[in-house]
Amino acid sequence: MTTATLPNVTLTTQANVYFDGKCVSHSFTLADGTKKSVGVVLPATLTFNTGAAEIMECVGGGCEYKLAGSDEWKSSGPGERFSIPANSSFDIRVAEQYHYICHYG
Amino acid sequence: MTTATLPNVTLTTQANVYFDGKCVSHSFTLADGTKKSVGVVLPATLTFNTGAAEIMECVGGGCEYKLAGSDEWKSSGPGERFSIPANSSFDIRVAEQYHYICHYG
């Protein structure tokens, strides 16, 4: 079951553009002030660093990811989530599109 | 004065990806059901076709645009808007980034 829509959010209108546009996201906050973002990764292999811990929830397409310290690529598809610790990193590779919600903390 | 945030919207989590990612947007609806989107155009010269009429509101960066039937490129920066008729088209060229809200109708 994927999360298709998110009601009652405050949307930041400027996009976040990473890796020359290979990843584009828009940030938003919930009514309680919790910050999240929705985004898409286009065909690429990228390394993301985390500050806060993150949970990546797939809402369309898919990816393969490899957490720092692991040598195993795992796949993540619609409705699936994976977690990245704070102050860490992960590699992600996308063949077509990976649409996600990023939850922090 | 640019529109930095939009309160109380229902956000569609999947992105819209156009022109191999040269334009990426996320759709949302207002509490009254009005549909809009926020997006970004990356460095490119593109042609967009309209179904419904559109108003493009710049919320960051800038672009040059040329409406169908015109041979004049005009620039649009933060806080500025331009309108495109229904069933028409416009060319847009972006040197860095053009962040926008697309209003329909």
TrEMBL record, chains A, B:
Annotated catalysed reactions: xanthosine + phosphate = alpha-D-ribose 1-phosphate + xanthine; uridine + phosphate = alpha-D-ribose 1-phosphate + uracil; guanosine + phosphate = alpha-D-ribose 1-phosphate + guanine; cytidine + phosphate = cytosine + alpha-D-ribose 1-phosphate
Enzyme class: transferase
A Gene Ontology molecular function term of the record: pyrimidine-nucleoside phosphorylase activity
Enzyme Commission (EC) number: 2.4.2.1, 2.4.2.2
CC terms in the record's Gene Ontology section: cytosol
Record-annotated membrane-spanning stretches: none
Keywords of this entry: Glycosyltransferase, Transferase
InterPro entries, sorted: Ppnp (IPR009664), RmlC-like_jellyroll (IPR014710), RmlC_Cupin_sf (IPR011051)
HAMAP family: Nucleos_phosphorylase_PpnP
Function (record text): Catalyzes the phosphorolysis of diverse nucleosides, yielding D-ribose 1-phosphate and the respective free bases. Can use uridine, adenosine, guanosine, cytidine, thymidine, inosine and xanthosine as substrates. Also catalyzes the reverse reactions.
Family stated for the protein in its record: Belongs to the nucleoside phosphorylase PpnP family.
Protein name: Pyrimidine/purine nucleoside phosphorylase
Gene that this sequence comes from: ppnP
